[in-house]
Design brief:
It is a multi-pass membrane protein. It is found in: Membrane. Keywords: Membrane, Transmembrane, Transmembrane helix. This protein is mainly α and 555 residues long. It folds into 2 domains: 1-275, Growth Hormone, Chain: A; 305-555, MFS general substrate transporter like domains (Growth Hormone, Chain: A). 78% of the residues lie in helices and 0% in strands. The chain contains 24 helices and no strands. The protein has helices spanning 2-6, 9-20, 29-39, 44-59, 62-71, 87-110, 118-146, 151-176, 181-199, 213-240, 245-260, 262-275, 281-290, 305-309, 312-333, 335-341, 346-378, 382-402, 408-434, 439-446, 449-469, 481-503, 505-516, 520-554. Helix 6 runs antiparallel to helix 7 (118-146). The termini are far apart.
């Protein structure tokens, strides 16, 4: 019985969820960034440069995609026994990279090895972060293949748990090694790697359909929401009242019990599959066709990567992601330094870092649902929601720039939710613009915009202005002025999207009228044209703001 449960797609899903829960090392950079800065004698620009290589390693996943394709080629069998290859190969590579990268960082920080040059430390950070792409690719793509009929839900669950993983690791840190970031880096080297190696044999590809897939996937979705709510309550209680060490242990045990709950769903799904006959999607489709529905054959017009890169929409979307993802990841990378400059306590800063993962989860999990609802019920295109979220992100950046007491709480909430929404909206917009056949390659290529934007905003903007500000004040700056100019400029880069929302309101009403008339083709064309005009106008504004930024710096 146990062996039969272990050889099911639900057990593969459970194992993937557990691995995803340990992939938040990049989101916890703020915990060990201070000790990394002091032990290596870095200034803010150098620290931001190291963090950019973290973002590059965690977002450039083209290599992991190629390895996954090679490892799973001709290894997909109904019983999950795929011969020598399979997703486990990709997971093993990711585990090795994770241990190697974080162990070398820990050895550098503790003095176990000689202080490495900055380029070598950047390489260590890149290796550690690159493990995320291998582990995430293996889990997400295998889940998508195992649950092809409900791929959106499966991928949403995977992405959601990645968004929560940072908060989970912080709870582990505050229980096992509170106030000891050096030990936390060693923890990052051991826990994800060990867990991945232990459960990787369970992650397989099953090309069979089971009964009540949607019901059990909804159960996993509900569980993820419960875990997110639990983490948020614990973080808020810790920030307001504080918790003794024994209470931290209890909260961690409860969290581990919740994370073990997918096992119950896997067992229930296996039992239902035995009690009820398995359905065939092909038969269902044929019955629907013979009952009177006409079968529509849609011509595949998907673009490959080279064709997409020749399209203006590709580069406009890439530019928008530079602004949206880059500014968001730059905020979380500098949240500790911002908090220290505003005299936040370590407890408050750790709470902000933990809550960021909750807001990131809400953005990732919620944006897809809201965009679908707006598209089908109102006829509003997804680029409009993307423009709206970037407009809301502008308000968040201005709140952070204001420096009033407690400003980081509402500011980080708005920026965190809007940043997370980009990771949900960008893949769906990519599929609508370029088709689904080569979406994985195109999506991973556009994701490079995140580290590129992180470098522009973190190093060339935030780090540069910060180092100019602390001249004569030592290596640390205190006061609202330390980051004010940086976030005002970042807000400028996003503010144009608010005017774009108002500008396109007339276009949206036309789309609604077209959808009510059933003009689906006209609606799609109008959506693409609307996207093009919105993003082109945004690109013009970005150029204007960059020139304005240079003028301000020179003055």
């Amino acid at each position: 019985m146990v062996a039969e449960i272990l050889r099911t797609k639900w057990m593969a899903m459970t194992a993937s969820i557990w691995i995803q829960c340990t992939l938040g090392g990049s989101y916890t950079f703020g915990i060990y960034s201070a000790i990394l800065k002091s032990s290596q004698s870095y200034d803010q620009s150098t620290l931001d440069t190291v963090s950019v290589f973290k973002d590059i390693g965690g977002n450039v996943g083209v290599l992991s995609g190629l390895v996954y394709t090679a490892a799973t080629f001709n290894r997909r069998r109904p019983d999950g026994r795929g011969g020598r290859g399979g997703p486990w190969v990709v997971i093993l590579i990711g585990a090795v990279l994770s241990f190697t990268g974080y162990f070398l960082i820990w050895a550098s920080v503790t003095g176990l090895i000689r202080k490495p040059p900055v380029p070598v430390m950047c390489l260590f950070m890149f290796i550690a972060a690159q493990s995320l792409t291998f582990l995430n690719t293996a889990n997400v793509v295998s889940s998508l293949e195992n649950f092809a009929d409900y791929g959106g839900t499966a991928v949403g669950i995977m992405k959601g748990f990645v968004g929560l993983s940072g908060a989970m690791l912080i709870q582990l840190y505050e229980t096992i090694c509170p106030g000891d970031p050096e030990s936390f880096v060693l923890l990052l080297a051991i826990v994800p790697s060990l867990l991945s190696v232990l459960v990787m044999p369970l992650v397989r590809i099953y090309e069979t359909s089971t009964v009540d897939e949607k019901k059990h996937l909804d159960g996993l979705s509900t569980l993820s929401i419960i875990i997110a709510a639990y983490l948020m309550v614990i973080i808020i209680v810790k920030g307001i009242l504080g918790l003794p060490s024994w209470a931290n242990t209890v909260t961690l045990v409860v969290l581990l019990i919740l994370l073990a709950s997918p096992l119950l769903i896997a067992i229930r799904a296996r039992r239902d599959n035995i009690e009820k006959p398995c359905y065939s999607p092909l038969v269902d489709n044929l019955e629907a066709t013979t009952s009177g529905e006409s079968l529509v054959v849609v011509e595949d017009k998907s673009l490959n990567l080279v064709q997409a890169m020749r399209n203006l929409d590709f580069w406009l979307l890439f530019l928008v992601m530079v602004c949206g993802m880059g500014s968001g990841i730059s905020t979380i990378n500098n949240i500790r330094q911002i908090g220290e400059s505003l005299r936040y306590s370590n407890v408050e800063i750790n709470a902000l870092l933990s809550l960021w993962n909750i807001w990131n989860f809400i953005g990732r999990f919620g944006a897809g649902y809201v965009s679908d609802a707006l598209l089908h019920k109102k006829g509003w295109p997804r680029p409009l929601l993307m423009a709206t979220t970037l407009g809301a992100m502008t308000i968040g950046h201005l709140i952070i720039a204001s420096g009033f007491e407690g400003n980081l709480y509402p500011g980080s909430i708005m920026v965190g939710i809007c940043y997370g929404s980009q990771w949900s909206l960008m893949p769906t917009i990519t599929s609508e613009l370029f088709g689904v056949k080569h979406m994985g390659t195109i999506y991973n290529t556009i994701s490079i915009a995140s580290p590129m934007g992180s470098y522009i905003f973190s190093v060339r903007l935030i780090g540069y202005i910060y180092d100019k500000t602390i001249i004569g004040e030592g290596n640390t700056c205190y006061g609202p002025h330390c980051f004010r100019l940086s976030f005002v400029i970042i807000a400028w880069l996003s503010s144009g999207f608010l005017s774009r929302v108002c500008w396109c309101s007339g276009q949206i009403s036309f789309i609604n009228r077209s959808s009510r008339r059933g003009c689906i083709v006209d609606k799609r064309l109008t959506t693409c044209e609307l996207f093009r005009y919105i993003m082109l106008y945004s690109a013009i504004c970005v150029c204007i703001y960059i020139l304005l930024f240079k003028f301000v710096i020179n003055c």
